[in-house]
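Project outcomes to date are best conveyed with an example. Our students and postdoctoral researchers have been running inverse folding experiments weekly, and each run begins with a structure described purely in tokens. The record below, which covers 470 residues, was selected by the lab manager from last quarter's runs and is presented without edits.
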């Protein structure tokens, strides 16, 4: 069956967006310049002053555009227009993940270079959030007859726990239909479950005693820098030095001072849902330490090394399903606590599994193969799964195909968006080839892609509004 013709109201909104593209770009740059990293709580700023500034920025914009705004205690806020029983909602986040060394462009400079806008949050998620905001504004400015309320929600800690939307929906209603512009095109109808294991492992003691290891900032980022200190038994010093002199990995540096060896490991950051796109400095460090360890400690260091296997086999949780494919894991943080190493392992598990099944698999493996390890804490965000033949999936796919001519099917991802925490909501696409990647250095979005996103979002919002009023 042919798709319906593009509604006149959508064409008018898209024309308005073309005329106001420069405003969209400059407002996006202004938002990107705000260092909205999570920080200690302040009054009416539960996630710190930077997130508070970013939230104020978007709420002030909405108010200046004649929208009704609400601030929910600094956790989140919204800008809304229209009337009716139905509610179409777009959920974006103004917080960003931390910044590591190695950027070529200032991470909060919002510099335009070679047709790209560079900044932390350019693609995850400030750029798409602003494009959605402008899409809604265009519908309002051109007088589109939505027949429902259109609401833009802005959260402040999507990257570190979703406390923002949890609090928001304690006091606000759920949407009739919602989207989270924070994924791939046309949409993701399934999001893997996300669990964090905080695991304690005894520090190896013997010929090579691991004194300390520190690295990582967030569970959902591949660690790109680790510093470890090992004490080498006097009778092993010469052998260790020989191994170090011939060690092949140029991303590892060793500094031996007497019997103490400092190991510095460099990797490549990536989103924790795709650990294979990065290069774990934790894995590199354990591989290097194992290389200089004596034979009687090989198993101890091998077990630690295997915790970093992206497949989850080192945790005993390897597996897959027929909808979302294989499980992945990422050691996002490692630190020393007394006699223990403490790992925060971020797991993306298949949509047909439950968190209880996942935890049971780990416990069975631990009891059998890692009896000295302990589970300090387990947290779970259950999977999201929408059938392909129901709204809003069918509507969004139809709009995307009309706008682009691309017949790409809805996808499945290991990342987690607000969609998993909000009823009747799916995550939709953001950038295209060349944009991103999220959580990596020199994050970017092509400047003209902001308008391209906004035009598609305007069409999606209009069509979902028609669905919501029926």
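After processing, the design step wrote out the following sequence:
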């Amino acid at each position: 069956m042919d798709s319906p013709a593009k509604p006149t109201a959508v064409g008018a909104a898209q024309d308005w967006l073309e005329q106001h593209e420069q405003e969209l770009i400059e407002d996006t740059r202004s938002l990107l310049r705000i260092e909205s990293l999570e920080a200690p709580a302040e009054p009416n700023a539960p996630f710190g002053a930077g997130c508070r500034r970013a939230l104020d920025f978007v709420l002030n914009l909405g108010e200046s555009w004649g929208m009704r705004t609400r601030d929910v205690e600094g956790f989140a806020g919204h800008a809304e227009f229209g009337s009716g029983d139905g509610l179409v909602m777009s959920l974006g986040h103004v917080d960003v993940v931390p910044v590591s060394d190695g950027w070529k462009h200032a991470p909060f400079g919002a510099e335009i270079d070679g047709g790209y806008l560079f900044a932390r949050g350019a693609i995850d998620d400030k750029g798409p959030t602003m494009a959605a905001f402008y899409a809604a504004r265009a519908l309002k400015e051109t007088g589109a007859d939505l027949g429902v309320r259109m609401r833009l929600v802005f959260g402040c800690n999507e990257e570190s726990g979703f406390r923002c939307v949890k609090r928001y929906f304690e006091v606000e209603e759920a949407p009739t239909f919602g989207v989270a512009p924070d994924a791939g095109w046309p949409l993701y109808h399934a999001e893997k479950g996300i669990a964090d294991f905080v695991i304690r492992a005894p520090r190896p003691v013997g010929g090579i005693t691991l004194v300390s290891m520190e690295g990582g900032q967030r569970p959902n980022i591949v660690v790109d820098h680790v510093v470890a200190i090992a004490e080498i038994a006097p009778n092993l010093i010469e052998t260790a030095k020989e191994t170090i002199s011939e060690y092949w990995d140029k991303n590892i540096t060793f500094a031996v001072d007497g019997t103490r060896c400092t190991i510095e490991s460099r990797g490549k950051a990536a989103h924790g849902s795709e650990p294979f796109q990065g290069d774990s400095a934790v894995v590199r460090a354990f591989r290097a330490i194992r290389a200089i360890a004596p034979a009687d400690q090989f198993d101890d260091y091998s077990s630690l090394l295997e915790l970093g296997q992206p497949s989850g086999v080192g945790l005993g949780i390897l597996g897959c399903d027929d909808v979302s494919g294989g499980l992945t894991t990422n050691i996002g943080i490692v630190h020393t606590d007394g006699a223990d190493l403490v790992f925060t392992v971020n797991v993306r598990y298949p949509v047909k599994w439950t968190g209880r099944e996942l935890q049971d698999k780990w416990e069975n493996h631990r009891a059998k193969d890692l009896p000295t390890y302990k589970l300090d804490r387990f947290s779970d965000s259950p999977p999201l799964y929408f059938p392909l033949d129901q709204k809003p999936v069918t509507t969004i796919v139809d709009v995307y195909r009309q706008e682009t001519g691309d017949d790409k099917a809805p996808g499945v991802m290991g990342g987690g968006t607000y969609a998993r925490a909000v009823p009747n909501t799916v995550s939709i696409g953001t950038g295209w080839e060349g944009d991103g990647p999220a959580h990596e250095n020199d994050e970017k979005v092509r400047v003209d892609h902001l308008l391209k996103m906004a035009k598609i979002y305007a069409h999606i919002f209009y069509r979902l509004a028609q669905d919501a009023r029926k």
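The chain is about 30% helix and 25% strand. The CA atoms of residues 221 and 272 lie 5 Å apart. The training component of this project remains on track.
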